[in-house]
Amino acid sequence: MSDLLTISLNNVRFRAYHGLFPDERQKGNDFVVNMEVSYTPKSGTILSLEDTIDYATLFEIIHSTMQQPVDLLETVAQAIAQHSYKQFPRIKVITVSIEKLNPPIDKFSGTVGVKYSKEY
Fold it and tell me: How far, in Å, CA of 99 to CA of 113, rounded?
């Protein structure tokens, strides 16, 4: 296996409107997104942004995807991964996790989330 370098975005917070229920689409919820992308560096020492994967661009992909309401967090996680790979086809492994901080479940205390991983 060749060398892999991993870029991560951690505990990125959003207010978004994902969910199956009308209340979730109207009131929204707080979400935390984590992402890791691993890739094989082109060569040797990375000295410029062109040699790596720009985490600011990854953030923009996450941000724009989070702003498009869908029913399921699984859909959001897969869309973030797909858009990221399309932008950076050098990605070898991607993991996206999304946590809903206030799920609409009676008597539930805690968070819910999904984690999606894909190898290319």
Answer: 4
The total number of structural domains that make up the chain: 1
Range of the domain at 17: 5-119
Question: Which pairs from 109-113 meet CB under 8 Å and 24+ separation?
Answer: 112/73, 113/73
pLDDT tens-place string over residues 102-113? 998 899 999 999
Residues 35-84 have pLDDT tens digits of: 999 999 877 788 888 889 999 999 999 999 999 999 999 999 999 999 99
> What CA–CA distance (Å, rounded) separates 77 from 117?
9
CATH at 80? 3.30.1130.10
Q: How far, CA to CA in Å, does 79 sit from each of 49, 66, 106?
A: 24, 10, 29
